[in-house]
Amino acid sequence: MAVHATTQVEATAEIDLWVPRDTMADLESGVRTVVADAAGVETAEVTGVTDVTPRATDIRVTATVWVVLPDHEVDPGAVRETLEDGFGIMEASVQVAEAAEA
Length: 102
Description:
Largest sheet: 4 strands, antiparallel
Shape: elongated
Strand content: over 45%
Order of helices and strands: EHEEHE
């Protein structure tokens, strides 16, 4: 079994996700809620929305987000897996993953 050191990680990623229409105040808060609900994500902030496709019950969104993961590997692949395991998140492309400054 491999042992990996963990630390607080800050990452920026472009994600494709489904945002439910009936549970959001506005699009950015809907994106933030979906991302923040992924296990392991402590904080999520939307830094940009690049594509929006409305559907009957939800909205497909491509957005750039900044996330904080409190106990995680400093590895873009591991951050991608954590994000993609979140409900409603289809794909994540992690551009930056680095240890948070104390």
